[in-house]
Every structure is written in C-alpha cells, then in structure tokens.
User: Fold these one by one.
Assistant:
Number 1:
Amino acid sequence: MNIAGFNDRAHELISGALDRSEDRIGRNGVCPANQAADYLTTKYIEACASIIRGGVAYLAADERIGADIFLSKLGDARFNRLVPRTQTMCAEHLSQHTHVYFPNYHTLLRLAYLHVLRNCGQTPFHSHGVVLLAAAKLPGVITDIRRECRRRGLSYDRVLVPIPIKESKSITLKISSYN
C-alpha cells in the first residue's frame, strides 16, 4: 500500500459513509450484512466502468468521476451535505486507494473483466469500461486480452494499455500487436 498521498480527513469521511451504507444495506435486506462490502465494491466498479466505457484508454480522471458518482449515490445524508470540494477530495482519495476501502476489490474486478471477456460475443470488448479499469489496476490483464483476441481470430489487439511511469506518475499509451 502506498502511504504517500493518504488523506486522513478523506479516509474518515469515506469510512463513515461506507459504514453507514453497509449498515443500511444489511438492515434493508438488499443483501446479507456480511456481503454488504462486496455489494458496494460491485457498485463502485459499475459506476467507474460506466464513465470509462467507450474510451480508448483508461484515464484516472474518469475513475475519479466514477468514484464521485458512486459516493453521491450511496444515499448517505451526512456525506451529501459536504461541500462539493470536500466530496471531490473524497472521490479522488477513494479512486487512488480503492483496495483500502474494498478488501475484495482486486478479486471482484478480475472476475468482472473475465466475465466481460468471455461473454461479450461479437461486440468489441476493447473499450468496455470494466476491461479498461482492470487493465489499469491489475497485473496480467493484457495477457488475458491477447489470449481472447487469439481465440476470436484477431491478428492484433487494438487495446490502448496505460503504463504508469512511477517517476512522473504520468501515463503512456502503448498499442500492442502481434502476428
């Protein structure tokens, strides 16, 4: 876990909102209380993927917008009363430290993108939000995408893969191809 950039104030606000939401989800019977965190994780992935969907590459700003939408849809009155600047700070923090708030985030994201790869039929999966999010967050995704392209008889994949450069924290785009 990267401690640099960890915002204690944002952590307090996000943890409180998630705690109250998990409690409400269990109380209202949306899912069993012990599965509320996984339920919220899938909602986070859906919110981010809906913003990233259709793009040619993963952009961290798109995930931050997805996190902002996710937090606003929690229905937490205390969080919704915060000033927009504070809500944006929390969304940015959540998008950078997702695994802290959702313990099964990587597992559920991997399952979600594998499901998309295997079940999207003839529709292009290259610009599917879940696939782009997974390509940016998980190791081994590019290999799975190449394998799926081979299975479909594609001679190349057109996925733009973000590769973070640690020194500058910028993103370079690489087009992978093989023959």
Number 2:
Amino acid sequence: MKAKYFLVVLLLAAIGFGGWFYHQDREFRQVHGTVTEVTYLNWSQEVEGSVKKLPVLIYFYDGSSAVAEKQHVEVNDFAWDNAGQVKVVRCDVSKPENLLLAIAHGALRQPAFVLLYGDDVVFGSAGAFATEEQLEYLLSQQPKQKP
C-alpha cells in the first residue's frame, strides 16, 4: 500500500517538474524567441546594440506584399526555435525611412535576409520566399567569432 502512495507522489512530482520546466522554457522563448519590428528610429538600439553579442538576422519585407504574411509565419517559427541563439528583427521597407536601411544592407528585392554578427555580414535569399530550413542554413553560414 505504501508503495502505491510513493509511486503516486513520485508521478505527481515528475508532472510538477515537467510543468515547471515547460513554463520556464516558454517564458524564455517569449522574451528571446520573438521577432522585433525595427525602424530607422530604433535601429541602433535593436540591431547595432546586439550585433556584438548575438548574430542578428534582419528580415526586410514589403508590408504591402501578399507574400509577407506567409513569410512572417516562417520567420516567427525560426525565431521561436532558435531563441537565445540569434536575434531576429524585421524591417518594413514600404516605409520610406526604412528603405535607406534596406539599400545600405543590399536588400534591393524583398523579402530579403541579412545575417550580421560582429563585423561579418552573410547575405541570404533576396526576392524569394525562404523556408525555415533555408533560414537555419543561413544561420549555420555565420563565421565563428573569436572570444
């Protein structure tokens, strides 16, 4: 009889610990696994402030495009799956002030992806829909920074 109670308590403890770890992981991903909208006004804070610590994937898109909504889903999934490994930002180039940022980073066709890490730049696909696997490949192409 005591063994049955012990197993029930052990099962409840395992469920409790599993729930706690799930909650902690979800909280971490909600902070570090979301896509941040950047504009010309917050570019230096969001991108230039983070590029020395973490790789930053910049997603340039045209907000008036029909492809943008489907690409947003892929980019959001990528950011969620790679929380803490890369910071993902998106920039709407249909706004004139953001178009200068896109041109400065070589994103002449949208959607376009640029990966920045330190002083290194890796250009991804431009003008074509990118899947989550292609974004994973782009992340793997980053040069390794020396500590």
